[in-house]
Amino acid sequence: MINEFLLDFAHWMEAQQYSQMLVAGYYSYSWLEATHVLTLMVSIGSLFIIDFRMLGLILTDVPASKLADRLHKPMIIGFVIMFITGALLVYAKPVETIQSLWFRMKMILLVLAFINAWVFNARMKAASGSWNTDSVAPKSLRNGAIISLVLWCGVVTLGRYIPYDWVDCGITNNTTILWAAGCVEQLNAL
Amino acid sequence: MSTAINSESNSYTKTITVAVLLALLLIFSFTSLRHETWLRLYEFFLWLETTPFGVIGKTWGAVFAVVEAVHLLAMALLGGAVIVSDARLLGWCFTEVPAGEIQDRAHKVFKIGLAVVLFTGVFMACGVAGKIYWLPVFWYKMLALATGIFFVFFIRRPMLKRDLDELNPRVVKLVAISSLLVWATVAATGRWIGFAGS
Fold it and tell me: DSSP per residue over chain B, as a string?
């Protein structure tokens, strides 16, 4: 049901003039992808520094909440650019992307990473106090930092896998993978 | 007095070294030497594909993709370190923490990021050596990377080891902006290899 809806939505997007223009442009898609990937140095780069500080691995002389506070802005700017360019990349190749198993797994990890970030921020605000100048953050924040690192490494890795066609609809016959990737036509043909 | 003279002569030596290196680079770039060197390197690039890295990279696409992901993550780490240290030099943040401390700590992270970027980069290059040899953007990337490494270890670090209050604030800001631009260029040219090669 959900797969059919997503595929219809993808076909509708693919029929849009601007979607076709993004793919047809000689450099437009490459520029979008390059911006999406390069902004990673700002967004995930800042996030790594905050997480490593929470784990007491780097910049232990800088108060943790201050570091998180100052890097928050470049990190958010980076993520906003990544989301805009990411959304445009999906818009440019909607059917191919929505039927990519890697893309779907990436989206799940992305949601989990944001839930973790939200919980992490709430815990950091609640725990602000004496630990701030300690080299290592309290255990709950350290756990949050480890989960964040694992999830974002997963997001980047799965993002990198999207162009690979190992489990694309036309390649695999495994029904579980076909269902998970939303390969409606291939499943109906079986 | 003698320390001041030593320091002055030391800085002159470095300036002369940089000037000589730049002159050599210009001679290399604008003579047939560059083309001859490029032609000679073809055999080396073909050999790279026969190394274990090259064989693994060409045979197992999944391994190549994982290394690509690690390369990207290391670039993110390197980017984070560059942002923290250059933002401090530009006075955008952490102004209450001595700049020297931030530079030292961030440089350690930078070195880890750079080491992983270089290792994974060499691995990936071995897998597609015969292809990237023909791509101008690959050579631009190598030039940008060499410039970045030279800039960090021979200009930026030695300069920042001094007391920052003694340095002209404009020079410090110029170094920070140059650093951001150099590493953004390295990343951008690296990304473009993928487009040019596909």
Answer: -HHHHHHHHHHHHHHHHHHHHHHHHHHHHTSHHHHHHHHHHHHHHHHHTTSHHHHHHHH-HHHHHHHHHHHHHHHHHHHHHHHHHHHHHTTSS-TTS-HHHHHHHHHHHHHHHHHHHHHHHHHHHHHTHHHHTT-HHHHHHHHHHHHHHHIIIIIIHHHHTS-GGGS-HHHHHHHHHHHHHHHHHHHHHHHHHHHHH-
